[in-house]
Amino acid sequence: MSKSNLAPKMAITTEYHNQKVYDSYRYMENLKDSIFLNWVKEQETQTKEALNSISNRKILLYKISSLEKKNTATFSLLKITDNNTHFY
């Protein structure tokens, strides 16, 4: 995994109300952009390689799955406010 996984930067400037805004990653908002799609595919490949290189991965996944099944929580009187704050 010696390859850089940084997203490429592009010089994009947009002007709003006479104020210039620089955003090097604006192109990522276009989910059909070929540069963005290629970067995502590279990320997927690198991630799979990293995960597959974990020794005893199947055992680890089994243990994590077992622990997740044991952990349960019950909440009563949960209140969620308009700004998505949770009180319980």
Describe this structure in words.
By secondary structure, the protein is α+β, with helices and mostly antiparallel strands. It has helices at residues 34-52, 57-70, and strands at 13-16, 19-22, 79-80, 86-87. The chain is flat. The chain has one domain. It contains 2 helices and 4 strands, in the order E-E-H-H-E-E. The termini are far apart. InterPro entries: AB_hydrolase_fold.
Give the helices and strands as they follow along the chain. Answer: EEHHEE
Structural category: alpha+beta
Q: Order the strands across the largest sheet as they lie in space.
A: 1-2
Summarize the amount of helix as a percent range: 25-40%
Could you tell me the number of beta strands?
4
Unreliable segments (pLDDT under 50, ≥5 consecutive)?
none
Q: What is the straight-line distance between the termini?
A: 44 Å
The amount of beta strand, in percent, is: 5-15%
- Rg (CA only): 22 Å
Count of helical regions: 2
- What value does the average pLDDT take? 89
- In this structure, how is the largest beta sheet organized? 2 strands, antiparallel
Shape: flat
* The number of domains: 1
InterPro entries: AB_hydrolase_fold
